[in-house]
Specification:
five-stranded mixed beta sheet; 12 helices; D-Maltodextrin-Binding Protein, domain 2; alpha/beta; 11 strands; single chain; about 325 residues; about 50% helix
Length: about 325
């Protein structure tokens, strides 16, 4: 006759064995899925309008990713709500690696801290997404029209003290919005923030005289600077941008808390099979290390980054910790 303790022990071992078999089956299923992925077109969703800095970089990455994976990568622009519209598009099931988001610290740090809306019911941004790879650090630049009386940052701030000036950014609650508020607070001036659904419409209004300045990525204003129609005044980050070597950093000019350069990254919905994420990460690391990609990124005012998912996650966590007190102090809520 089997004793009760022995029977219980047998049941425990049986449950463990069944659990292990289930885990192996899931792993096998994930590996099989990774081997056949992508099975259809991949949508790389961009949270800002076509033609802007984020869109430019996303198209560069998308083109290379298409070649690396041997499938079609479609760039899908979903501007609005500082990335929430794009994020919710990407989070539509199934989480199988065919819907990805080209996000940034604006969409996945500032929005995560400042938005009153949840990206998904009952989930934070960190719970809803898996960060796959940080692709580049992205300094921001404050720029004015070439015919502006503000020849440098000091003159711009003096002008702002005499009367409120406006600046356009690529969205309410974006990193550019936050940096504009930090600048205003540090200099003791009032700056009117005008949010746009991307960089292109902000530049259009700058050139049309609807706003006095723009706070955008270097990539977004690079062509206008080269053409001589826009004058850059200062860049964020701790060192000058190689494509704009004559433009000082805010830190050099004595403006505090402007050392955050920002970044671009590829995100997948949480729950995407780990083998698919691993294959995608490997492809993105190879792309980020490609000499042609790095050269084009540098020309766009970016700092190329090669990162594993673990390194990318650490960058995300550090950015959230650094931005939290700034967002709170600037009272950024949307």
């Amino acid at each position: 006759m089997t004793s009760a303790p022995f029977h219980r022990e047998l049941l425990v071992h049986r449950r463990k064995a069944l659990g292990a078999l289930a885990a192996l089956a899931a792993c096998g299923s994930g590996l099989a899925r990774a081997a056949t992925w992508p099975e259809r077109s991949i949508n790389l969703v961009v949270p800002f309008a076509a033609g802007g800095g984020t869109d430019t970089v996303a198209r560069l990455i998308g083109q290379k990713l298409q070649a690396a994976l041997g499938g079609t990568v479609v760039i899908d622009n979903k501007p609005g709500a500082n990335g929430l519209i794009a994020a919710r598009t990407v989070l539509q099931p199934p989480a199988d690696g065919h819907m990805l988001m080209f996000g940034s610290n604006s969409t996945h740090v500032i929005a995560a801290l400042a938005s009153k809306q949840q990206v998904a019911p009952g989930k934070s941004m960190q719970e809803a997404f898996t960060i796959v790879s940080v692709m580049a650090n992205a300094p921001l630049v404050l720029a004015v029209r070439a015919d502006s009386p503000a020849k440098d940052l000091r003159a711009f701030l003096q002008q702002a003290k005499a009367g409120k000036l406006s600046y356009g950014s690529f969205g309410a609650g974006s990193s550019a919005h936050v940096m504009g508020e930090v600048l205003a607070g540090s200099a003791g001036v009032e700056l009117l923030h005008v949010p746009y659904k991307g960089s292109s419409p902000a530049i259009t209004d700058l050139m049309g005289g609807q706003v006095d300045a723009v706070f955008l990525t270097v990539a977004a204003v690079e062509a206008m600077v080269t053409a001589g129609s826009v004058r850059p005044l200062a860049v964020t980050g701790l060192r000058r941008v190689s494509s704009l070597p004559a433009v000082p950093t805010f830190e050099e000019l004595g403006v505090r808390d402007m050392g955050n350069a920002g970044w671009f990254a590829v995100f997948a919905p949480a729950g995407t099979p780990a083998p698919v994420v691993a294959r995608l990460a490997t492809a993105l690391q190879s792309i980020a290390g490609d000499a042609e990609v790095q050269s084009r990124m540098v020309a766009l005012g970016l700092e190329p980054v090669v990162s594993t998912p673990a390194q990318a996650l650490e960058t995300w966590r550090r950015s959230l910790a650094a931005a939290a007190p700034i967002v709170k102090k600037a009272n950024i809520v949307f």
